[in-house]
Design brief:
It is built from eight helices and five strands, in the order αααααβαβαβαββ. The longest helix is centred in the N-terminal third of the chain and has 23 residues. 51% of the residues lie in helices and 14% in strands. The chain is α+β, with helices and mostly antiparallel strands.
């Protein structure tokens, strides 16, 4: 699931992914009505069981087998923190329509989730931390950091991108910019220092 943009997925696979996500979300909705998925833990457990059953019974085409396994692995490894519901919702939205039609903030949210899935650290810093110029060292090789006030001010209530916001990148700045581009977001490198890179996320 390295490239999430629906336009790059073959039409038959895109349709199958949309159908998979829709069926899972519909089943979850019914389970909630029956009181079976009232907590994040119960929701995650329901979705894992539903996906495992779908996999065992081969309900969906081979073209989505990798995605189905990825969802299962994520739910089992991360529990409720894996946000299976949100990932399924994203799949349905992006594969049943144009990803570019989603709000800028929606796409940024899933771009950052993709980076975290790839092992990136991230941290939202307060004004004092940001002005100190000290960037936390990531646990592995890569991390991205942003000032909370600047991030909040950069987006309108409807999720549209209003102002440029800067990210500090430790590690592979080119990979960060590439993932942003996969989600239809424009990021460019401003400056690099021995401590970190500064990347500007700009409105379209």
């Amino acid at each position: 699931m390295s490239d999430k943009t629906g336009s790059d997925i073959p039409e038959n696979t895109s349709s199958a992914l949309s159908h998979l996500a829709f069926c899972a979300l519909a089943a979850l909705g019914l389970a909630r009505q029956d009181g079976e998925a009232g907590t994040p833990y119960a929701e995650n457990l329901f979705l894992i069981r539903w996906l495992a059953t779908a996999q065992k019974q081969k309900r969906f085409p081979r073209s989505v087998a990798i995605d189905l396994q990825w969802l299962l692995d994520r739910g089992r490894k991360h529990g409720a923190a894996g946000k299976l519901h949100q990932h399924l919702d994203y799949l349905w939205r992006s594969c049943s329509g144009d990803l570019a039609a989603q709000s800028d903030l929606f796409r940024l949210t899933y771009a950052t989730e993709t980076l975290k899935d790839q092992g990136w650290d991230n941290y939202v810093m307060d004004n004092r931390e940001w002005k100190s110029g000290v960037t936390p060292a990531p646990a592995r090789d890569n991390g991205f950091y942003v000032e909370k006030a600047a991030l909040n001010a950069a987006f309108k209530q409807d999720g549209s991108h209003l102002h440029t916001v800067q990210f500090r990148i430790v590690g592979d700045a080119a990979a960060f910019i590439k993932v942003m581009a996969e989600y239809g977001l424009h990021a460019r490198l401003i400056v690099s220092t021995p401590e970190h890179h500064t990347v500007a996320l700009e409105p379209a």
